[in-house]
TrEMBL record:
Record SUPFAM superfamilies: Phosphoglycerate mutase-like (SSF53254)
PROSITE patterns associated with the record: PG_MUTASE (PS00175)
Protein name (Swiss-Prot/TrEMBL): Histidine phosphatase family protein
GO cellular component: cytoplasm
Length: 193
C-alpha cells in the first residue's frame, strides 16, 4: 500500500518578499500569500485527500487550513515540520547577516545544523506517511525543510542548493514499502490561473 504525499510550501510573507530569514519566527501570510493559499486550495478541488498536516507556524498552518477548509477538515500541526531554526539570524537580510556575523560560525549563532533539520524532516514525513498507508495526504511546511527532504530522497540530485521551492509549490512523493520516491517537484501551475 502506498501513501501519496503532497508536500507544499506555505504562501508568501512580507519577510519572504524582502528576503528576511524567518526560521522559527512566526510571520503571517501577506496579501499575496493569502491569495496563493486560495489558489493552491482550489487546485485540490475534486481530489480525494484523507488528512492535512502542517508546521505549527501560522504561515504554514493558514495555508493548510485554506486547503483543508474545502474538505471541511481540520489540520494537525507538528513542530517537527517547522523551518530550520536560524537563531540570531532570524529577522535579518542576507546583507545584514554578512555585516554582523562576518567572523562567526553558524553554531555560535544558535543555528540548527542542516543534518539535524534533515533528520527531523525525514522522521516527520516517514511517521506521517506510515500513518496513512493507502491514502493521499497534504503536508504544508517550509522551503528549507522541503528541500532538505527532497535532498534526502534523491540522494543529493535535487533539493538543498539545487532546487528552488516556490511559495505554494507542490512537490509530490510516493511512500511504498518503506521507500520514498519523487513524482513531481515544485508544481506551481495553480498560480498561473
Amino acid at each position: 500500500m502506498e501513501t501519496i504525499m503532497y508536500l507544499i510550501r506555505h504562501g508568501e510573507t512580507e519577510w519572504n518578499q524582502v528576503r528576511r530569514i524567518q526560521g522559527h519566527s512566526d510571520i503571517a501570510l501577506n496579501e499575496l500569500g493569502v491569495r496563493q493559499a486560495k489558489q493552491v486550495a482550489d487546485r485540490f478541488q475534486g481530489e480525494t485527500i484523507h488528512a492535512f498536516y502542517s508546521s505549527d507556524l501560522s504561515r504554514a498552518h493558514d495555508t493548510a487550513a485554506k486547503i483543508a477548509g474545502n474538505f471541511q477538515s481540520s489540520v494537525s500541526t507538528r513542530t517537527t515540520l517547522r523551518e530550520r531554526c536560524y537563531g540570531e539570524w532570524e529577522g535579518l537580510t542576507y546583507e545584514e547577516i554578512r555585516e554582523r556575523f562576518e567572523n562567526q560560525d553558524e553554531a555560535s549563532c544558535g543555528i540548527e545544523t542542516f543534518e539535524d533539520m534533515q533528520r527531523r524532516a525525514v522522521a516527520a514525513m516517514t511517521e506521517i506517511a506510515g500513518s496513512h498507508l493507502g491514502e493521499a495526504i497534504v503536508v504544508v511546511s517550509h522551503g528549507g525543510l522541503i528541500n532538505s527532504f527532497l535532498h534526502y530522497v534523491t540522494v543529493g540530485e535535487q533539493g538543498t542548493g539545487i532546487t528552488r521551492i516556490d511559495n505554494t509549490g507542490i512537490t509530490i512523493f510516493r511512500y511504498v514499502d518503506r521507500r520514498w520516491e519523487v513524482l513531481s517537484v515544485n508544481d506551481t501551475d495553480h498560480l498561473k490561473a
